[in-house]
Amino acid sequence: MLLTIVIILLFSYLCFNILSVKKIESQFLQQRSTLIDKKENLESINTAVSKRFRELEENIQEAFLAYELTRDISPLFDKDKLLEIFMEKLKFFGKVKNIKFSSYPEDNYLNYELKTDHPRYLCVESSSRKVKEYLPLFLYQLNLCLERNSLYNKLQKMSIYDSLTGVYNRRHIMERLNEEFERAKKFAFNLSFLMIDIDFFKNINDTYGHIVGDVVLRGVASLIKESVREIDSVGRFGGEEFSVILPETLKQDAIVVAKRIVKKITSTKIKAFDESIKTTVSIGLASYPENSLYLDMIIEIADRALYKSKESGRNIASWF
């Protein structure tokens, strides 16, 4: 009887232990499954985070590239240098065979219309997908630079040119005269200076009106420019007066130039609307170092020579 009870108790104990082991095994399997799920979730999260980091890194690189592009091309006023820098930045995205500005679309190029008339198109030779994708984004910066360059050139032109005649204004012609005078002194060059006045210009304005007078001023300025060299500088000194700087020019050579200007203007009719106007000019000239070693005296002597021409009957060149 006692043995039976012991066997029953032992069996019960074994059954209890088996149930406990199975319960622990079940809990372990459940925890294992949970850990596996967590691991997979962590791997998925890690993959997503890594992908996002790569995307952010690419975006940061692109942002830095856009910043560098803006920084590098913003100070540039040379279109060739602008294109060179632009091309270098595009190479970050892919191969670029060639890039250029053009007035019209080019065959076998990617053609992007710009906001300026000159140039009208940016033409890029590339088969890179990324270049094609990102290039339009950078055109905004390029357009800003081109617009700024255009405004700068207009301001430059306004600051040195006379708006009516297209020759240098008085301020700039005096700056050029100072520069050439200093150069002549430094290198022992000759320098000649002409003062030119349109004869009886007031009569032209009174007879035909100021609009015709403006046309005559433009015509005379153009004829003077045609009579001198590329290295010579022509400016409007004020009103109907012009001046010409003749670098490295002896007095006798300046006299030849002055006489040529007088002859050309005398023999040319200036077409002004329905009128054909004939006019003449008087010229005074002075030279360095023949007339003076001082610039203010050169100007003064040329001015006195101009009045000598007027007193002598006009339509001539005079000198001392």
Task: Please state the average pLDDT score.
Answer: 83
Pairing-aware structural class of the strands and helices?
alpha+beta
Structural Rg: 43 Å
The stretches of 5 or more residues where confidence is low (pLDDT under 50) are none
Overall, the morphology is rod-shaped
- Tell me the helix content: 55-70%
Q: Largest sheet, order of strands side by side?
A: 5-6-4-9-10
Descriptors:
rod-shaped, three-stranded antiparallel beta sheet, 320 residues, 10 strands, five-stranded mixed beta sheet, alpha+beta
Describe the protein:
With 320 residues, the chain is α+β, with helices and mostly antiparallel strands. The chain is built from eight helices and ten strands. It has helices spanning 2-73, 79-90, 129-160, 170-187, 201-208, 210-226, 251-266, 295-311, and strands at residues 98-102, 110-113, 121-125, 191-198, 233-238, 241-247, 269-272, 275-278, 281-288, 317-319. It is rod-shaped and about 165 Å long. The strands form three sheets. Strands 5-6-4-9-10 form a five-stranded mixed β-sheet, sandwiched between helices. It has a three-stranded antiparallel β-sheet with strand order 1-3-2, with helices on one face. Helix 1 runs parallel beside helix 3.
Which SSEs are present, and which pair or pack?
Elements (H helix, E strand, L loop, with lengths): L1 H72 L5 H12 L7 E5 L7 E4 L7 E5 L3 H32 L9 H18 L3 E8 L2 H8 L1 H17 L6 E6 L2 E7 L3 H16 L2 E4 L2 E4 L2 E8 L6 H17 L5 E3 L1
Parallel strand pairs: 9-10
Antiparallel strand pairs: 1-3, 2-3, 4-6, 4-9, 5-6, 7-8
